[in-house]
Amino acid sequence: MISVLFAVLTALSNGSASVLQRRAALNVPDSEAMHLSLFRHLARQKVWLGGIALVILAAVCQAVALATGPIAVVQPIFVIELPATLLLAGFVMRVRTPRPVWWGVAAVTLGLALGMASAAPVGGSDSVRGAVWVPALLLTALFEAALIAAALGLRGNPRAALLGLAAACAYALTAALMKDAMARLEAGDGLVSLLAAWQLYATAAAGVGALFLLQNALQAGTLVAVQPMLTLGDALISVLYGLTLFGERLRAGWWLLPQLTGVALIAVGCVVLARSPLATGSPGPPRRVE
Fold this sequence. Notes:
- Helices cover 74% and strands 0% of the residues.
- The protein is mainly α.
- The protein has 13 helices and no strands.
C-alpha cells in the first residue's frame, strides 16, 4: 500500500509538471532545439521552475515507491498522471470539465485496472547483479541513439513523438537505476553504501537526460503527440526492465489479450486527454454560476 500511495503521488506531481513544462516550452524558439541553451531560456520562466519543483517532489515520492514495491507495479500506475492532473486543473481553475475528458479518464482508469489485474506482477528481487547491467545499458543506449537520430530528421509532431518515446525510455531507465540504488540503502552500511553505489549517480545522469529529451519533445510538437508515447513508453519499458533485470513475473498465455486491451484503452484515453483545452493551457470559458 505504501508503494501504491507514493506511486500515485508521483503521478500527480509528474502530470502537473508536464503541463507546466509544455506551457513553458511554447515560448522557446525552434533554433534552441537539442541544445543545452534550451535550459537557459526555460529557466527564465516561473512556470517552468514550478514544473521542476514538482519533478523533484516526484523523484522523492518515486524513490519511496520503488524502495517498497516491484517496478512492474509502481511504474504502470504513473499512467494516471495526466487524467488526475486535468481533473485537478479543472477544479482549481473552476471550469467545467468537458465530457471527452471524463471519457478519457474512464478509458485510462479502466485500462490500468484491466492491465494490472490481468498481468498480476509478482516476485522479483530488490537489486540487480552488476554484470546484468552491461547488456541492458548497451541496448538502451542503442535504442535511444536510434530514436534521437530518427527524430532529428523530422519536424513537428513526428519528432515530438519520437523524442517523447526517447524520454520515456530514459525515465524507465532512471526508475530501474533508482530501485537498484535504493536497495543499497537497506543493505550493507546504509547511507554509506548508497553514496558509494554507481547506480545513484547513474540515476541522476539518466534523470537529467530524460528531462532534456522531454523538454525538446514538448518544444517540437503538441502534447497530443508527446503524452501517449511518454506515458505508455515509460510503463511498458519499465515492465520490461522489471522482467529482465529484477526477475519480476507477469501472467502469460491468454492473459495477454486483456493486457493488450488495457494498453489500447490507456493509449486512446491519453490521446483524448492530451487534446483537452486543460492540457494545452487554454481551459475555455469559466463555469457558469447559477
